[in-house]
Amino acid sequence: MIFGGPYSNLQATQAVLLESVKRVSNPVCTGDLVAYCAWPTETVAAFSSANFEVIAGNCEVQLAARANSCGCGFTSDSVCNALSIDWFGFASSSIKIFERKWMASLPDVISFAHSGANYGVIHGGASDVARFFGHLQSLRFWKGIGLRLKPLLVKWIIFYPDIVVFPLLDC
Question: Are the C-beta atoms of 142 and 160 separated by less than 8 Å?
């Protein structure tokens, strides 16, 4: 199971944790544990105490660094940017030093082998943790770096041999 964006939603986090215990041996979370919802510390505690691999998303990177914004790269006039000012402020004031240290220890990439192929799981882009991918953008990106592999589409995840991309919606 590979998923991302718990966004401080404790109830959804608890449901995913429960489901993963039933079905999965090595679940991976692609980060952004903390965001729009009301339970940042409880959500972080749920993941830090669970047997989950967690990748540092831009929210973890920014909170670990005690930054002033989520680092999402929202355009200044977007609704997402306006909302992020409040939720990031709330989250930052709630997150404790030991949680920031845990976030700082999270890896940028997690790799695994499956059915004879190697995969890497990242949050955002290989060189920009907050990179947004829409369908057309991701095709241009992969063409731009010369990747000519046929993707395997699984719901909202695009798997490429040796790379996994999680497209996000632009805000």
Answer: yes
What's the domain range around 118? 109-165
In this structure, the answer to whether residues 13 and 63 fall within a common structural domain is yes
Handedness of CA 10, 12, 13, 19 (dihedral sign): positive
- Rounded to the nearest 10°, the torsion over CA 114, 118, 119, 125 is -170
Rounded Cα–Cα distance for residues 163 and 165 (Å):
7
Q: What pLDDT is recorded for position 142?
A: 56
Outline where DSSP puts E strands in the chain. 2-3, 28-29, 53-54, 109-114, 117-122, 152-154, 157-160, 163-165
* Same domain (yes/no): 6, 86: yes
In angstroms, the CA 52 to CA 29 distance is 7
**Distance between CA 17 and CA 167 in Å, rounded?**
23
The three-state secondary structure class of 39 is coil
Q: pTM (2 decimals)?
A: 0.78
Q: What pLDDT score does 134 carry?
A: 56
Do residue 147 and residue 66 come from a single domain?
A: no
